[in-house]
From TrEMBL:
CDD domains: AKR_BsYcsN_EcYdhF-like (cd19092)
PROSITE patterns from the UniProt entry: ALDOKETO_REDUCTASE_2
Taxonomic source organism: Undibacterium jejuense
Domain NADP-dependent oxidoreductase stretches: 21-294
Record's protein name: Aldo/keto reductase
Signal peptide range in chain numbering: none
Record has Signal as a keyword: no
Length: 307
């Protein structure tokens, strides 16, 4: 990797924030068994690569991940001004940390959205979220009531921008008609092509909104050395490995470059506590595939040639 290279930042919506194209995903932070000081060092290493955006959620790590990040930020307060903070709410997870929840369910009521955002700020020991996402579409979501919550959080200075996660184009358009949304965080990988073809990324392009991508490496299934019975993985891995060898890149960087190349300008979330994995993700930002290379991967993933 070019030692002078850092991950680029882009404005993710016409009136939205500027985020790094690689986002530090902390879903598994509680599983990494890092000391508070080790977390500080990990954040500093990410920052040195140009990864300035952190993705969290209230439920991550059984409601622990945000607090673990907060402990690190309390040790290194200057980092608060160097990162952009994203968190999510709207899922009530059955947990010892939330004993009052009788059943796992969605809650996008005004009261819950506001309380969740405030809890996230306290846990992470920060004063403002750069972006608050609704984690999943709620069948009972009231777009007008949600807009009231967003307006209150924005007016109070607790949340700068609002977006959603895992919303269909129709669900996105409904909520966006009440309050301006700046992103849709969705699953996309060589093992999950749906957003390319169901209108999700088309809508992002139409609105000039950059999507945020989770599980960009198929939950790690793309990179495992073990044999797989999944025919899609069996098709994709050889093509991915051949391209990686030709380009002299890690297979992970090729898979992420494939996503980053989409004209909706996606941001890609990482999910690893290894700095080497962050370097490989950053490396993906330096390389553009040819159309032939891009479509060789798409054809393998789709299991067909283009018509």
């Amino acid at each position: 990797m070019n030692q002078s290279f850092t991950v680029p930042r882009i404005k993710i919506a016409p009136e939205g924030p500027e985020f790094s194209r690689i986002v530090l995903g902390l879903w598994r932070l509680a599983d990494w068994n890092m000391t508070p000081q080790s977390r500080v060092e990990f954040l500093e290493q990410a920052l040195a690569l140009g990864i300035t955006t952190i993705d969290q959620a209230d439920i991550y790590g059984d409601y622990q991940s945000e607090s673990l990040l907060g402990e690190a930020l309390s040790l290194a307060p200057s980092l608060r001004d160097k990162f952009q903070f994203v968190s999510k709410c709207g899922i009530k997870l059955v947990s010892k940390a939330r004993p009052a929840y009788g059943i796992q369910h969605y809650d996008t009521s005004r009261a819950h959205i506001i309380a969740s955002a405030e809890n996230s700020l306290r846990a992470m020991q920060i004063e403002q979220l750069d972006l608050l996402l609704i984690h999943r579409p709620d069948p009972l979501m009231d777009a007008d009531e949600m807009a009231e919550a967003f307006q209150q959080l924005q007016a109070s200075g607790k949340v700068k921008h609002v977006g959603v996660s895992n919303f269909t184009p129709a669900q996105f358009e409904l909520l966006n008609s009440r309050f301006p949304l700046v992103t849709n965080q969705v699953e996309l990988s060589l093992l999950h092509l749906q957003p390319l073809h169901d209108g999700t990324l088309d809508l992002c392009q139409k609105l000039r909104i950059a999507p945020m991508i989770w599980s960009a490496l198929g939950g790690g299934d793309l990179l495992r050395d073990t044999p797989s019975s999944n025919p899609q993985i069996q098709r994709v891995r050889p093509v991915l490995n051949t391209l990686a060898s030709e380009l002299k890149l890690p297979a992970s960087a090729v898979a992420l470059a494939w996503i980053l190349q989409h004209p909706s300008h996606p941001l890609v979330l990482t999910g690893s506590g290894r700095i080497a994995a962050l370097r490989e993700a950053a490396l993906a930002c330096q390389h553009t595939l040819t159309r032939e290379q891009w479509f060789s991967l798409w054809c393998a993933a789709a299991g067909k040639n283009v018509d």
